[in-house]
Specification:
Number of helices: 5
Distance between the termini: 16 Å
Largest sheet: 7 strands, mixed
CATH class: Alpha Beta
Strand order of the largest sheet: 6-3-1-7-8-12-11
CATH architecture: 3-Layer(aba) Sandwich
Helix content: 25-40%
Length: 176
Amino acid sequence: MLLEGKNVLYVIAQQDFRDEELEIPEKMLKKEGAKVVLASITTNEARGMLGMRVKPDITMRSATADNFDAIVIAGGSGSVKLADYPEVLSVVRRFFEKGKIIAAICLAPFILAKAGILHGVTVTVSAADFAISELGRAGAIYSDRHVAVDGKIITADGPNASKEFGEEIVRALLKP
């Protein structure tokens, strides 16, 4: 239980998050003893692209960076819509301002770009042209690696990188 006492805010879209991008890293975090709190725009049941159904614990409006050691954002086609919510961008910025771990996979690094926290940061994202373009506009340095770690920002390019993404989050949480 290496992560006992660590709290992780795990953000998903209400509709069309990528199931394995939630399931695989979340299991890894819980196995190591981290407390994972699931958040979305509402606490209504959220649905994954592959049929997973989960009920978020809290809304993004009630999420605060003070209560967590890291924020993780699952990707999927619905994740891009999270960038339309000011409360999501605000929470991401607070994690950044407080120097906490920020992790996003698949299309979710698009949210980090919209939050304005990626200038000069090496990141990866799903190979969607609009997402890569947004990273460029945000001043990020795009990498075609499956997982990119730059300081406390961890990004991954899609569901096939879910395990490695989870391992990097665990590794980051273990650092003092």
